[in-house]
Design goal:
The complex is a heterotrimer of chains A (259), B (420) and C (169). With 259 residues, chain A is mainly α. Chain A is built from 7 helices and 4 strands. In chain A, strand 1 and strand 2 (106-109) form a beta hairpin. The chains are: A mainly alpha (259), B mainly alpha (420), C alpha+beta (169).
């Protein structure tokens, strides 16, 4: 058991070590309760659906989400829109398809199998429309930032007037959670910018939480399955470990040694 | 028990075995006499075999979906994570499996250092192990390039640029490695090919590693030669099989925790940003298992010498059987060596820590001191210690200390147990 | 007592082995299942085809699930020929009425049921299709009449979304 303890000590050292890597640029992020954390963490469906609304109505005008498909919206473990609702969402977008028999591209209403329609055709177009700054694709954004969900959640609420002595160029804003504090995106959220269908008050804080939850799901769509399977796997391993332990004790019982 | 007089019971078995002695091999493996006093640090050989097989199986399945092309690699990884049945599970096992593999190999190496397992007659086992370790680093590095994220791209750029430190031909070698004038699609496809190949080379070397082990047999915590088979040994099956199995399960619990609950903690967030040759991430950090060597590289202010220092830090290990001049294997009977051993462990951990930190100010100073000490340990302390150290009396058999033995040995054991 | 002890010991070993085997089997499944069609492939299970430009007597070939699907606008003679065949003459008896609900349109997977080649249009002894690989003859209803193929060409699930559009799958 002492040996085990030692192993855990070494392990924790390494996990600390990697946590330290991020700590170098860490600030105190705003905290909130995330329903998807912990051994049994699950997404809050209503928050995911509201988060999708914030994404489409606010973020999607600049940020793409190219690895998601409309079918994902009705899949298990996600926002779980009904299939009909997901179809209607898909059909509300114009998708470029083709070439047709005449060799020309045409547009048609979206289908479940289509990927999310991108706001710009390519990175260059996105940069040109946004003063040279590329609005990053949001599919895996949460996993691509050191602070994860806490960072995104804080950033959305971190817009402030610059402190004295800080001068900002045109089209640059001050955000206390942004790396280097200068950000090319204007504060995207303001109270009531979307109108929630379920009557939830669309405060900046609420919308930040909802859209961040949505982004967590988009980055990790199988999170719920992972948590469920993980719990089963670890319980199973513990049971087998106990059985093997007693078998080992029995097998070694005739040997003058320690196990 | 002896391999040569084994005869299968059935006629068919005999017929087969006369033509291909697989049954003799199986019999040798199950009966293989193993010292009965092996502690849990000895279970990591089995754990490493498990790691290698896990990496090969998950790697093969990932390769069925992965696309080794600069334009599609990142997307194909997302495809695996989102659409492929259990793709997320397989990829997270593979990615975290690399870290678990290195965790186990470091414990395995440091166990060998503590109990002097590299000493005569086991030098070949040790050197094969070092080659395996080098190949593991190559495989891990190239594997990290495959998702084609920012860390993949810039890690590949930085590591391949190490070769440019070689005078005269360096630049040519780097261009040759890249297959172009920068890390790009040709680099990715050849890295994928090599990443696929290396595990099978490792597998072959592991067979040799175990073969070489089975010639003299296992070292043991007392570090003395034992008669085999004798009352000091137990047959590998079922005694060691069940014990290795128990340790493996404990290891798998830790492994499962990483895979299911913190699958990305050992990776770097920047690798979820697709590779961009125009922008370098703010901090370039290798995977944790390479950090000590990265610290050594950065602690030398000269390009060529830095690379030389880093490579020497690994290659010096191959010379260890001859650098350590002590005839006593186990640190249990070497009170001074034991202290230096733990200082070395601390030194490597410190190197790992500063390797993750920016190379400036105090961190750089610490890295330099720790680097100097690392070489001092192997090049000065170990050779001198073998001549100067007053060692404790070594028992004649491992049964002796277990059964109580002389008071001297009881005291030695007591001290040993305090350390663990 | 001495009888019981080995029994209990055996039970422990059996339980350990059994629990271990269950886990091993559970681990094998993801490695097998990953080769099954993935979520993005399944999502493409249906395809819509505009058939307004197909003239009577013509066939178009569209790709569905990676396989060619023949959509033939049959002439009146072809329909009659297909419907007049007696069931006894068929290797794989199926009524043309069941294969083509709208007699003008024959929709079927254009894959020979022998070994998977694509049969040629307007060829063979029965004015339908002929598979060049091993000589299977199909009639104007896509039914096997002569040759090694065991079954008629498969009619996929399809429906007319409107007069000009067929949705396959």
């Amino acid at each position: 058991m002492k040996k085990l303890f030692k192993l855990i000590l070494i392990l924790s050292f390494f996990s600390l070590n990697s946590a330290q890597t991020f700590a170098a640029e860490k600030v105190d992020y705003l905290k909130t309760d995330w329903s998807f954390k912990g051994l049994f963490g699950k997404f809050d469906r209503a928050a995911l659906q509201r988060g999708y609304q914030v994404y489409t109505e606010v973020c999607a005008s600049c940020h793409s989400m190219k690895y998601l498909s409309y079918r994902n919206l009705s899949e298990k473990g996600g926002p779980e829109f009904s299939e009909a609702a997901a179809k209607a969402i898909a059909a509300s977008f114009e998708v470029t398809d083709g070439p047709n028999a005449d060799g020309e591209m045409f547009t048609r209403p979206g289908k479940l199998s289509d990927k999310f329609v991108m706001p710009y055709d390519n990175v260059k177009a996105a940069q040109a429309a946004n003063g040279g700054a590329y609005p990053p694709d949001m599919s895996v954004l949460v996993k691509a930032r050191g602070g994860g969900v806490d960072y995104i959640y804080s950033l959305l609420q971190g817009y402030e007037d610059p402190p004295s002595g800080v001068t900002l160029d045109d089209g640059v804003y001050y955000n206390k959670y942004m790396y280097g504090n200068k950000i090319r995106m204007a504060a995207p959220l303001s109270d009531g910018i979307v109108e929630y269908g379920d009557g939830t008050n669309a405060s900046v804080e609420q919308m930040s939480k909802d859209v961040t939850t949505f982004l967590m799901w988009s980055a990790e769509p199988h999170l719920e399955a992972r948590h469920q399977m993980g719990f089963k796997a670890i319980v199973y391993l513990i049971i087998l470990t106990i059985l093997v332990y007693f078998s080992m004790k029995k097998i070694w019982s005739g040997v003058e040694s320690e196990v | 028990m002896s391999d040569h007089d084994y005869k299968p019971k059935s006629k068919v078995g005999q017929w087969f075995n006369d033509r291909l002695p697989l049954l003799t091999l199986a019999n040798h493996l199950t009966d293989y006499p193993t010292p009965k006093n092996l502690n849990y640090w000895w279970t990591f050989g089995g754990i490493l075999t498990f790691c290698l097989i896990t990496q090969i199986i998950t790697g093969l399945t990932l390769a069925m979906h992965y696309i080794a092309h600069a334009d599609m690699a990142f997307e194909s990884v997302e495809h695996i994570m989102r659409d492929v049945n259990y793709g997320w599970l397989i990829r997270y096992i593979h990615a975290n499996g690399a870290s678990m593999f290195f965790l186990a190999v470091y414990i395995h190496i440091f166990r060998s250092l503590f109990y002097g397992s590299y000493k005569s007659p086991r030098e070949i086992i040790w050197i094969l192990g070092i080659i395996i370790y080098l190949l593991m680093m190559a495989a891990a590095f190239m594997g990290y390039v495959l998702p084609w994220g920012q860390m993949s791209f810039w890690g590949a750029t930085v590591i391949t640029n190490l070769f440019s430190a070689i005078p005269l031909v360096g630049e040519g070698i780097v261009t040759w490695l890249w297959g172009g004038y920068s890390v790009d699609n040709p680099t990715l496809t050849r890295f994928f090919t090599l990443h696929y190949l290396i595990p099978f080379l490792i597998l072959g070397l592991v067979v040799l590693h175990i073969w070489a082990l089975h010639v003299p047999g296992n070292n043991n915590p007392v570090g003395i030669d034992i008669k085999k088979p004798s009352k000091d040994t137990v047959p590998f099956h079922p005694y060691i099989v069940i014990k290795d199995g128990f340790a493996l399960l404990m290891f798998m619990i830790v492994f499962a925790f990483f895979v299911f609950y913190t699958p990305n903690i050992l990776g770097h967030a920047d690798n979820y940003i697709e590779a961009n040759p125009m922008v370098t991430p703010a901090h370039i950090v290798p995977e944790w298992y390479l950090l000590p060597f990265y610290a050594i590289l950065r602690s030398v202010p000269d390009k060529l010498l830095g690379v030389v220092a880093m490579l020497s830090a690994i290659l010096i290990l191959a010379a260890l059987p001859w650098l350590d001049t002590s005839k006593i294997r186990s640190a249990v009977f070497r009170p001074l060596y034991k202290q230096f051993y733990w200082i070395l462990v601390a030194d490597v951990l410190i190197l790992g820590y500063v390797g993750a930190m920016p190379a400036e100010g105090l961190y750089l100073l610490i890295a330099r001191v720790a680097t100097a000490y690392y070489f001092l340990h192997f090049l000065v302390i170990l050779p001198v210690l073998g001549f100067k150290e007053r060692t404790l009396p070594v028992p004649l058999s491992i049964t002796e200390p277990i059964l109580g033995g002389s008071p001297n040995l009881a005291a030695a054991r007591h001290r040993e147990s305090k350390i663990k | 007592m001495s009888d019981k002890k080995p029994k209990r010991r055996e039970f422990l070993y059996t339980a350990t082995t059994a629990v271990g085997a269950v886990g091993a089997a559970a681990v094998v499944w993801p490695m097998v299942d990953q080769m099954n069609p993935d979520a993005s492939v399944k999502a493409l299970a249906s395809t819509e085809v505009d058939v307004s430009s197909v003239k009577p007597g013509n066939t178009i070939t569209v790709l569905w699930r990676g396989k060619p699907v023949f959509i033939r606008r049959r002439t009146q003679e072809e329909i009659e020929e297909a419907r007049s065949v007696k069931m006894e003459e068929l290797i794989h008896p199926e009524k043309d009425e069941d294969r083509a609900k709208n007699p003008e349109w024959l929709v079927m997977v254009g894959v020979c049921t022998h070994l998977g080649c694509v049969p040629l249009n307007d060829k063979g002894d029965y004015n339908g299709w002929f598979c060049p690989c091993h000589g299977s003859h199909y009639d104007t209803s896509g039914r096997i009449r002569k040759g090694p193929a065991p079954w008629n060409m498969e009619v996929p699930k399809y429906e007319f979304v409107n007069a000009n559009t067929i949705k396959i799958g």
